[in-house]
Design a protein that fits this description.
This protein has about 100 residues and is of the alpha/beta class. It has a single domain (about 5-95), classed as HesB-like domain (Hypothetical Protein Aq_1857, Chain: A), CATH 2.60.300. The chain has helices at about 5-20, 65-70; strands at about 5, 25-35, 40-45, 55-60, 60-65, 75-85, 85-95. The strands form two sheets. Strands 3-2-5-4 form a four-stranded mixed sheet. The radius of gyration is 13 Å and the shape is globular. It starts with a strand and ends with a strand.
Length: about 100
């Protein structure tokens, strides 16, 4: 199952705080299908979480995974990376 790095968990909590997102809203990773079957991932804060979502947790931060992203990201770690525009969420392959 996908994992969440400590840095990604901290960045999500920081994003929640700076955007003024209430603690009762869940963090959800979902996607839209785009050309050739690829997925365009979307991270959002939502009031209602579908029962079909899977949940990952790191350092008290939960991310709900839409069932459309579970299989494609099963061996991934959600992390953060510094870019010219600031921090960006990235997905890396899990190492044993």
């Amino acid at each position: 199952m996908m994992e969440l790095s400590d840095n990604a968990a901290a960045a999500l909590e920081n994003l929640r705080e700076t955007q003024g997102v209430p603690q009762d809203q869940g963090t959800r990773l979902t996607a839209d299908r785009v050309q050739e079957g690829n997925l365009a991932l979307r991270l959002e804060f939502v009031e209602e979480i579908p029962e079909t979502d899977q949940v990952i947790e790191q350092a008290g931060t939960e991310v709900h995974l839409d069932e459309i992203v579970v299989a494609p990201l099963e061996d991934a770690v959600m992390d953060v990376q510094d870019t010219k525009e600031g921090l960006a969420f990235v997905f890396r392959t899990q190492t044993a």
